[in-house]
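Reproducibility note. Readers wishing to regenerate the assembly model reported in the main text can use the exact inputs given here. Chain order matters: entities are listed in the order in which they were concatenated for prediction.
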Amino acid sequence: MLISYTITDSPLGRLLVAGTARGLCFVSLGDADGLLEKELSSDYPAAETVRDDVSLSAWTAALLKYLDGERVPLDLPVDVEGTPFQQSVWAELRAIPYGSTTTYGEIARKLGYGATGARAVGRACATNRVSLVIPCHRALREGGALGGFRWGLDRKARLLDQEQRAAQLTLGL
DNA sequence: GCCAGAACTCTGG
DNA sequence: CCAGAGTTCTGGC
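Running the prediction on these inputs yields the following structure tokens for the assembly.
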């Protein structure tokens, strides 16, 4: 498997975007380029990763606009492996409209797992490799607490804050 | 290869 | 407050 990737600057830190011929397979935010590259290769140990700033530019531009607070639809193609359970959780996450949020428990109930599946849902979100395209930051804990976030809670808070601002602007507020 | 414990949770006793 | 329930991964044996 061949994966090309690129790294650019973004309002939330360094942004790594990686994809196969079929779609995005890895998106990550971080502070150091080297760490991001390491994350990618340890997540895809069998793949060959090559830096390619050109062919990924369209997807990268869309993500940058999004991180900049523009309300763009992130309906980019993704190419991620996952169990059926994970796929269904990710599908639910992508169905959350821009600017709104849901809870882990609600997703679990919708999928027919009752309240007990909430933890499993949280785990499925945590192992999602394309966290901006699949908006796992729109999943909160019951009671409004943010819960956890792979890239740090302040990034989660900033993403949500930005989304809510942009959504309100669109409504004419 | 198997078992225990942890991870972005929630509910009921 | 404590324990248990469903999924997946990791680490120890």
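We highlight two features of this model. Chain A has six helices and six strands. Residues 103-105, 108, 114-127, 136-137, 139-142, 146-150, 153, 156 of chain A lie near DNA strand B (CB under 10 Å from a C1').
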